[in-house]
Amino acid sequence: MVSQLRLHLCMIGYLQGALHIPGDCVTDPTSTSMALAETAKQNGVEIHEGIRVENVAITRGTVSEVSTDRGTIKCDYFVNCAGLWAHQLGFKTNPIVKLPLHASAHQYLITKPVEGINPLGLPYIRDLDDSCFIRDWGQGFLVGGFATVGKPVYKTGIPHPAEFTSLPEDWDLFRPILNGFLKRVPGAENAEVLKLFNGPESFTPDMAPLIGPVSEVNNYYVCAGFNSGGIAHAGGAGKLVAQWMIEGRPSLNAWPVDVRRFTKYHNNTRFLIDRVSEVEGHHYRIGFPGMEYHTGRKLRCSPLYASHAASGAVFGNRGGMETPKWFANMSDTEEYGFETQIDTFGKPGWFDLVSAEYWACRETVCAMDMSFFTKFEIKSDGPEALELLQKLCPNEMDMPVGHVVHTGMLNEWGGYENDCSIARLEPNSFFMICPSFQLTRGYRWIERHLPPDGSVKLQNVTHLYAGLNVMGPRAREVLQKLTDTSLKLSQFKPFMCAEIDLGYASKVRIISITHTGEDGFVIYIRCEHALHVYDALKDAGRIYGIRDAGYNALRWLRLEKFYSYWGEDFVDDATPFEIGREHRVKFDKGVEFIGREALLRKREEGCRRHLAMFLVEEHDLDQDMWPWGGEPIYIDNKLTGYTTSTGYGPTLQKLVCLGWVTNKDQSSGEDREVTHDYIHHSKVQIEIGNKRFPAKGFLYPPLVATKQISHV
To answer: Do 591 and 383 form a contact (C-beta atoms < 8 A)?
Structure first.
């Protein structure tokens, strides 16, 4: 195989294996760009070069014109595709458009022809272990890669002009990449350097592009931050932006690259400088499950952070918020916490720790920090707040004061723009909890639908409240010790809320849901009172063996109940019918809520795709690879979809996967309805690590997972 691939030019003594992609190719960026520009001109596009944008004017919240050093251009849409200048260009708008990216030095080497070596026709070689790529360049080689630790540049701003600026050669920075070239190509040590080019390249905080509509301004789009992959992404990225502009939505799930996944906190320059220095090193690194960045941390912390850290918490990052993933032994170091998450796609090192937390949640009582959830308040003097929510939500929002409704917020196609729980605190006052990912996007969705007369007030109160999830069969008994308000199940039923005294703290918001299906409450405490309430809770629960639990235990609990999460299992192209939440759509509530007509059509058509739950069979937890999301799902030997969230179900004693499936007729190509019989009675397999495992499929959760049982 190696000789067939003409890899005889490469030293293979260090290799355990290689992957050949016959359809792989290279293209010259300059020629490609010029060809695209010429085609655009032929279709009526005008291209003016050497123009400097001085301001993007906004009229009534919408882009209206662009001022340049050569005049003003009126426009209906504006696309910021300014590459490494995109971040600075965002500041030329009022309000500022926040685009988190920063430039780093990025180098490649061109050699003169090497005597005795003809690289023409050599496959494009990517050596991930040595962070380099090698390809032919004329009769010589082009060698590039990604620095283990990036070197940010232009820390105080990009100078002008800088269109064709190159940076000084940095051989120390390039040496690890050069060593990879010398290691792989025999005779490379005899190659003469034609040029070491060093230029700026923009990187983002999570190594994914910034694409789509921004949250601050209407009709302002971005297409930037490609982390040195601009040419590779160009066609698809341009198509997504065009679809967003023309049709209002992309044709596929674009959430991983949606610019609205970031918050205002990610736009800080010093944060970006530190983060991009780490991001570049991850470009060729194996992305093991649970990988977390080390830089740019502790920017947003719960008021309980120090207490959790002292108790052995291993933190992850959700929406920029430090969140306990699990609790290790107090003697373990933070480095140990990181190490348990890497170097395996099999059974994780934290398995036993999370199992203990899981069973405490099911059998006794646990406290779980939920401060990362996004929290909004929606108020009005009159009925306007209720009228707004009735329009935004398909569920019935005119509930009694003291009750909670779980609902989506849908777009005109019936897809979930947001997924939330809303508590009615007063007749015209609502408290809304939604995923951490919705801090930017969710706020903007509600804001753009506010009445123009200012009668409804929307406030982001995420930073004002800590959240504690107190769950388990003993949760009510423990909390009852801290309050005079009765928390008996007969008086404080599920999906109710109140503001109560808890310990010394007043007006603590307590909601009888846990987001896991277990009995208990989520309590929202003003941050200045959070530590007191937490300590009092731990004292009151000590006789019951109360313990802390992290997000990984929450994940296992909610997967067993088939609780799907926005941003992880579904996004804005999924309707309630496709994720099993049709009971939360009230067509008869007498309000034309957004998405109603689309849902009526969907109800008539039936679901041509559906989110399903799968239990993996014949799997050895200790020896086999684990699913971590993105695994192919086969039904009757046909590829029908991919997994989303995955984890272990201790009660079910099996690995649990959620995933999307379709039912395409192989002869006609027609998408048929996905039914319970199709999922439950077909031959289902999930491919994990190139091995197919049988699985049982469900459109609704198995009943055993909802029962409180003891484990052996």
So the answer is: no
